[in-house]
Design a protein that fits this description.
This protein is α+β, with helices and mostly antiparallel strands and 199 residues long. Helices cover 30% and strands 39% of the residues. It has an eight-stranded antiparallel sheet with strand order 1-2-8-7-6-5-4-3, with helices on both faces.
Length: 199
């Protein structure tokens, strides 16, 4: 139990040290801290308007029982993104250069509906941080989006996964039908990464 307290304490300190854009708008409650300690995700959904768009997403945290290097190898492998992102039916890799920057086209599908978009992704040198954004020079079925992932090593080979994402799915029927589902699914990334690491 003392070990678990130590890991949780480190995680809370690390979350508090994150830039404001990468941490919850409020301090973690005792319940949220307990959920992190038990290996559950803590999710902070958000919705806001910017430049005429409506963005949904938020930030999600999870302590994963795997080291950051192992998690980084999963995240850096687009072939594994079907495990990490919801309803992915196709991943086309345009290439990742020596600096860890790349172009990827993703297609998500549910029944007769599907949508594709291109992202640019930049990894840090060690692959423990990445940021991504919709490549607006390409044809996309979503209006805009961006996000980040941070893999913070913790004691005992554990990692604090911090995931932030905001997506503008565009106007119309697609937004009406899918915006809420997209937001919930997008914030499930830390749980999916933990599952991928265990298998």
């Amino acid at each position: 139990m003392r070990l678990l307290g130590c890991v949780l304490g480190c995680a809370v300190v690390l979350v508090a040290a994150l830039p404001l854009s990468e941490r919850p708008a409020h301090a973690l409650s005792a319940l949220e801290k307990a959920r992190l300690a038990q290996g559950e995700s803590v999710v902070e959904p958000t919705t806001y308007a910017r430049h005429g768009g409506r963005y949904v997403g938020g930030v999600a945290y999870r302590i994963v029982d795997a080291d950051a290097q192992h998690l980084s190898s999963i995240v850096r492998s687009p072939k594994r993104w079907r495990e990490l992102l919801p309803k992915v039916t196709d991943v086309e890799l345009g290439g990742i250069d020596a600096q860890g920057r790349g172009h990827v086209r993703l297609t998500h599908g549910v029944g007769p509906f599907s949508g594709s978009y291109s992202i640019l992704i930049a990894f840090s040198e060690k692959g423990q941080h990445a940021r991504f954004w919709v490549d607006r020079s390409q044809e996309n079925d979503i209006a805009d989006g961006w996000g980040f992932i941070r893999l913070t090593p913790l004691p005992l080979g554990k990692t604090l996964v911090t995931w932030g994402v905001l997506v503008d799915v565009g106007d119309g029927l697609f937004r009406t039908l899918f915006e809420g589902k997209i937001q919930r699914s997008a914030l499930d990334f830390p749980r999916r990464l933990a599952h991928a690491a265990a298998h």
